[in-house]
Specification:
Largest sheet: none
Number of strands: 0
CATH class of one domain: Mainly Alpha
Radius of gyration: 25 Å
Helix content: 55-70%
Strand content: under 5%
Order of helices and strands: HHHHHHHHHHHHHHHH
CATH architecture of one domain: Alpha Horseshoe
CATH superfamily of one domain: Tetratricopeptide repeat domain
Distance between the termini: 71 Å
Oligomer: single chain
CATH topology of one domain: Serine Threonine Protein Phosphatase 5, Tetratricopeptide repeat
Structural class: mainly alpha
Shape: elongated
Length: about 325
């Protein structure tokens, strides 16, 4: 029995050593140990996946240095990562080697960029958000301020709001994450990076939408409405007249656009915009350019069933 336990111990030591080499970016060392593992333990675990990962990166990075690489090189290596995700079927479960490697890879990238002497930009030369690198490294504390800075420069960028939501999920702050996701889906649902969506309940709703509508842009555009009615997204309640007036202008712009060039794609956006005004009904008395009854009649004409659910929701809240 002691000899058998020793044999199993040697097997685990060799395999774990190979994985450690992979995580240290020693791809040749990883492959050498995996080959030795196969020869010594033909009855052991299947290691083709680990070998494929190591071979992929040895071919693309080999003996590349990691010290003090600049933002252009970081961008290039992020491009290699996208190739890797495509080749290995991202997203993958958290217990897979790809997930472990992802964290180490992006820790290396962010640390190398920090050590380069450059002032950390909010985005790389090719437009990749620097905060996304921190997010993929599992570092929400690094991701959040960089993504917030980018939103300040690109307030209509839905993808950045989505990544910020992912960062707050990683931090454990789901209420703030859902405010970010609400903003992202109301701006441009088709622009989100849904593969990285961190909110499991929201991801299930996205999947349900896909079963019903094959994830067409119009189907995703209804998601803010349905997510609010299901209690996933909080209602958007205005704190002052300036916020309300800005939303009224958005609503009136959509009304004009829909009258001039009516399209199916605009319907969910218009419904959601009207629903927000309906949620803020007490404040509408201070704005003369819209009438609550007209807002609700429009909602009913756009989707009677969702309008009925909205009114039931309002009644429940009273």
């Amino acid at each position: 029995m002691a000899e058998q336990l020793s044999l199993f111990g040697e097997e685990n030591t060799l395999f774990n050593g190979a994985v450690q080499r992979l995580l240290e970016m020693d791809f040749s060392g990883c492959l050498e140990r995996l080959e030795r593992y196969r020869k010594l333990f033909p009855w052991g675990r299947e290691v083709r996946r680990e070998a494929a990962v190591a071979a992929f990166w040895r071919e693309r990075l080999g003996g590349a240095v990691w010290e003090r690489i600049d933002s252009a090189e970081v961008e290039r290596r992020y491009g290699l990562w996208l190739d890797f995700e495509k080749a290995f079927g991202c997203p993958w479960p958290e217990d897979k080697i790809e997930q472990q490697f992802q964290v180490r890879y992006f820790l290396r990238l962010t640390e190398s960029l920090a050590a380069s002497g450059e002032e950390t930009p909010t985005s790389l030369p090719g437009g990749t958000p620097t905060g996304l690198l921190h997010l993929l490294a599992g570092r929400p504390s690094g991701a959040i301020p960089l993504l917030q800075g980018l939103i300040g420069a690109e307030p209509e960028n839905a993808r950045i709001y989505g990544y910020l939501g992912d960062a707050y999920v990683l931090r454990g702050d789901l209420p703030t994450a859902r405010i970010c996701y609400r903003e992202a889906f109301s701006l441009d649902p088709a622009g989100l990076d849904l593969r990285r969506l961190g909110d499991r309940e929201l991801l299930e709703l996205v999947a349900d939408q896909g079963q019903e509508d094959d994830l067409e842009p119009r189907a995703l555009a209804w998601l803010p409405v349905r997510a609010q009615l299901l209690g996933i997204f909080p209602r958007r309640l205005f704190r002052g007249l300036d916020e309300l007036k800005a939303w009224v202008e958005r609503y009136l712009d959509l009304i004009r656009a829909h009258r001039e060039h009516p399209t199916d794609a605009m319907v969910p956006r218009l419904f959601y915009c009207a629903m927000v005004l309906s949620d803020n009904a007490p404040m509408l008395h201070f704005v003369s350019s819209v009438d609550l009854a007209e807002v609700r009649r429009l909602m009913k004409s756009l989707d009677p069933a969702l309008f009925a659910r909205h009114m039931r929701d309002l009644e429940t809240r009273r």
